[in-house]
Design brief:
395 residues, alpha/beta, Rossmann fold, 4-stranded parallel sheet, 17 helices, globular
């Protein structure tokens, strides 16, 4: 509290400029990396001993910055990394430390399973940010011990540094949108900040096991047998947005032994706007619809959003699927990532993965890694989100 009051004076000048915010649909963590070699960290035995006696822990974040955070962290806020509150809650086995989360993260918790598993997350404040803007004064009022923010947003970092708030940059793109690697790196970072809960080894080994199992089964597919996969990242009656080569969809398609139908599109992140003529030309075999749109498979089957999909192979085969909605929107990295990969492989190549009991796999994963026991009904809802759930996510 004392730190916050002293920092108010330092941050006052920043307050008004930050209200305008910084549009940050893309993670710019690489351009914001601090590559100063003096930050490299091979500690001597004496330094390690001194570190144990201190009340802080030193970590290097995804932007390359060395950050000191308290050993005892009781109040955590998140800015700009929408899936990260769900990862923190699952990692800690509780959302009690989360005092501030982005509004979109809260709506996902309300509609998905996270708010049911950890209802305390629904008490987290959201008024200090709308996703692209940050009100530093309102953030300070939360008195956070640490803030996790989108790596590369130097304006946010400057404001929080000036306010005396320890802030840790978290990247979504540093590993070229490799969803499994990004998830591993997020858990590794949390394991440095909360070492008593270290889950790095378990998470990495489980993810690798799932990935290897899938590769073993799809490795024999010829190029002609590999299915064309189209991701509908956003879809309504005004625009269609997919995942090109530089977004998460490319990893998902490659990892399940398919082809990203939109790989030719070089647009970064979520800027790959397409039209129906391109979709007709690609003629995808499978379509996955994310939870960043309210569109559902029936909208393609019935042409209810103003477009005729009837000639597209995926629609003919009824191979259009809404992505799972568990702890968060599963298109992004998160705790659902490894089991989402298995689900996607099973949907893409049902004959190759017909022997896998996905529901049991999901329950085992969450119990063994995170100590969370999901019911059959919860798993069913997770993999079959309803239309009103998708609509609620857009608030």
């Amino acid at each position: 509290m004392k730190r916050r009051l002293m920092a108010m004076l330092l941050a006052a000048a920043m307050c008004f400029t930050m209200l305008g915010g910084c549009a940050s649909g893309n993670d710019s963590s690489q351009s914001g990396e601090n590559t100063d070699s003096s930050q490299s960290t091979q500690s001597s035995p004496n330094e390690a001993s001194n570190e144990e006696e201190k009340d802080t822990i030193t970590v290097v974040d995804h932007g390359g910055y060395t950050v000191e955070v308290p050993k005892q962290i009781d109040r955590v806020a998140v800015v700009g990394i929408l899936p990260f509150p769900s990862v923190i809650a699952m990692y800690l086995g509780s959302a009690e430390k989360l005092v501030g989360i982005p509004p979109a993260a809260k709506s996902a918790a309300e509609i998905g399973l996270l708010g049911e598993i950890f209802p305390e997350i629904l008490n987290a404040e959201t008024g200090y940010t709308n996703g692209s803007d940050l009100n530093i004064e309102e953030l300070m009022n939360l008195d956070p011990d640490v803030v996790f923010y989108l790596a590369g947003n130097d304006e946010w970092k400057t404001a929080m540094d000036s306010a005396g708030i320890p802030c840790i940059g978290v990247s979504t793109s540093k590993w070229d949108y490799d969803v499994l690697e990004t998830y591993d790196q997020w858990i590794d970072l949390l394991s440095q900040v909360f070492p008593e809960e270290n889950k790095s080894k378990e998470v990495s080994e489980y993810s690798q096991e799932i990935y290897d199992k899938i590769q073993e089964r799809v490795s024999g597919l010829s190029e002609d047998e590999k299915k064309e996969i189209l991701f509908l990242y956003q879809y309504d009656d005004s625009q269609i947005v997919t995942s090109g080569k530089h977004f998460f969809g490319q990893f998902w398609a490659d990892a399940v032994g398919g082809k990203n139908a939109a790989e030719e599109i070089q647009a970064d992140n979520s800027n790959a706007v397409i039209n129906m003529e391109q979709i007709y030309a690609w003629d995808p075999d499978v379509v996955f619809i994310t939870n960043f749109t309210s569109a559902m498979p029936d909208d393609l089957y019935n042409g209810s959003l103003g477009n005729d999909w009837s000639s597209v192979q995926a629609v003919k085969d009824e191979a259009v699927y809404k992505m799972p909605l568990g702890s968060y929107r599963s298109f992004t990295p998160g705790t659902d990532t490894p089991v989402t990969l298995l689900w996607m492989a099973q949907k893409t190549y049902p004959d190759l993965f017909s022997d896998i009991d996905l529901a049991q796999e999901v329950k085992d994963y969450y119990k063994e890694i995170y100590g969370v026991e999901l019911t059959d009904e919860q798993v069913e809802r997770m993999y079959n989100p309803e239309a009103h759930d998708a609509e609620g996510l857009l608030r």
